[in-house]
Amino acid sequence: MSYLVLFDTDRIQEYVFATQKLRAIRGGSFLLECLNRETTNLIETHVGQEIYVGGGAGAARFADYQKAFDFCNALEARYRHETIIAGITAWLEPFQKAEPFWQWVERAEMHLRRRKEEKDRSIPLVNNPYAKVCELCGRLPAEGDPVENKFICMACRRQWNEGAEYKHSLIYKAIEDKSPSTPITWPESLEDIGQASDPEGYIGLIYSDGNRMGQRRKTELKQCNSTEVETKYRQFSECVDKATRWAMVDAVIELMGDPVANKIYPVQFFITGGDDMLAAVPAHQAVPIALRFGELFEHYYESGRSGADSRDCFQGMGQGASVALGVALAKQNYPLHSLINTARELQKSAKQMAWKEREQDVSTIDFLATSSSLLQPLQDQRAEELEYDNLRLTQRPYTIKEANILVELIRGLKRSGFPRNKVNDLWRPLYRGRLAACLDFLVLLSRLSDQGGTPPQQALVKVAEEFALSPFPWKLTADFNYITPLLDLAELYDFINL
Ligand SMILES: [Zn+2]
Fold first, then answer.
1. What average pLDDT score do residues 348-360 get?
2. Into how many domains does the chain fold?
3. Is the N end or the C end of the chain the one with fewer CB atoms within 10 Å?
4. Cα of 29 to ligand 1 centre, how many Å?
5. Domain contains 393
């Protein structure tokens, strides 16, 4: 008899972002990574066979029921002990006679998901008048620290202490290993990241998730014969994890340049496991990095990554895959928790588009430059603010290809010397009705200079050409609405540099 054990970390984001302190956030993220890596030993001591461990999850096969059962308990106990509030869920699934491996995995997964949902999600809150509440998370009972005179809970203390160690995390190490002779200074706060932004004081949060990864894995496993199926499972999980991490590392270095000694390298990674990725960068680099990340992910997933250092190389799956990206741009002091929610909403919106275009399997992106919290779901807010009389004042979400065009058009306008004080004229007329907007844009075009190499007038006409806007600034959709990318362009304008 054979037993398959699947496991997956619970509430990663809730745990990692229980606090606003950057050090504790990355400490929590690193602690989860360490626990995940330790799991390999735990499988060995329980005489199991590792199939895959990585990205906060994993799978193993056991011959002995009791050993498998003990492993599940030991694993869950270890997580609870180390993180206090985050846990891991394991599921033990016996093999059924004559079933293919993928069916076994699928059944185990369904049970694992169900068990995760059933788990008690309540976090103990302090309601005892004699207990102090933790200063970092504001939720758990705190212990006093006689040295620093601080009241911090056990969960946050672990996160805080690990914060000093986070550099050993795989993604930071990957960047450090690329510049071995440069001592890298990592940011201590979101202000450190905002300072490197142009305009100063803004950060961008990038959230990415792979599209239909479960479905892809199933297809891969179904095509295998029984001898190679576990290898394929491992290869798939490893490829997704590495393609995500390396696409981000390479996109960041390509766009931010190599680290410089004694200068802060303004990037923080919060979640990098499996196909999930969440990072903060200076605002003006967020959309370009996200777009490059999407391109590189597609490439690495299909063809793998090669290089001089064999540790950085991996095999691709030989087929396409795509990601959905959300990018939220805001002031550096914007509450991180709300910003993450916004980025997640944007990512969901991008994913919906990817789902509609699934025949082509395209990567998509949605973005928002925000000064206030989303008070209602993104779609509702957009319907209220950006839609009237069959007009839709946004083309978001975009495919990565279209978004690259949008970014290049902004750069074209900037290079042409398009006057900064005319940027508002790119979106204000859109609220005056369809025909009035057409007239306003004709006036705007006629007033722009047509002198020089690539004059502003020509740069704006190029926008109309690239997005097939006719009559400028509108494009008629198949369902008889008029849409335009001009407000999107104006919203991003300040966050794209030459
Ligand atoms: Zn706490």
1. 86
2. 3
3. C
4. 15
5. no
Q: What is the DSSP string of 12-81?
A: HHHHHTSSS-HHHHHHHHHHHHHHHHHHHHHHHHTT-EEEEEETTEEEEEES-HHHHHHHHHHHHHHHHH
Say how far apart CA 284 and CA 248 lie, in whole Å. Answer: 16
Statement to judge: residues 440 and 332 lie in one domain: no
Distance 449 CA to ligand 1 centre (A): 59
Check whether residue 2 and residue 132 sit in a common domain.
yes
Distance CA 422, CA 426 (A): 7
**Residue that terminates a domain, selected from 121, 148, 166:** 166
- Which domain, by its residues, includes 455? 398-493
Tell me, yes or no, whether 437 and 470 share the same domain: yes
Q: Are residues 415 and 338 in the same domain?
A: no
Task: Say how many Å lie between the CA of residue 371 and the centre of ligand 1.
Answer: 28
Residue 38 Cα to ligand 1 midpoint, Å, equals: 24
Q: Is the pLDDT of residue 373 over 80?
A: no
Distance 154 CA to ligand 1 centre (A): 7
Q: How far is the CA of 205 from the centre of ligand 1 (A)?
A: 24
Residue 369 CA to ligand 1 center (angstroms) comes to 31
Give pLDDT tens digits for 294-306: 999 999 999 999 9
Residue 125, pLDDT > 70, answer no
Sign of dihedral through CA atoms 485, 490, 495, 498? Answer: positive
CA–centroid distance, residue 156 to ligand 1 (Å) = 4
Q: Please determine, for residue 131, whether its predicted confidence score (pLDDT) is greater than 60.
A: yes
For residue 128, pLDDT over 70 is answered with no
Using one digit for the tens of pLDDT, what is the confidence trace for 215-234? 999 999 999 887 899 999 99
Q: 150 C-alpha to center of ligand 1: Å?
A: 11
- CATH classification of the domain holding 101: 3.30.70.2220
Mean pLDDT in residue range 389-406 = 96
**Identity of residue 157:** R
Mean pLDDT of 10-28: 84
Ligand 1 ion local residues (Cβ < 5 A): 134, 136-137, 140, 153, 156
Distance from residue 191's CA to the centre of ligand 1 (Å): 22
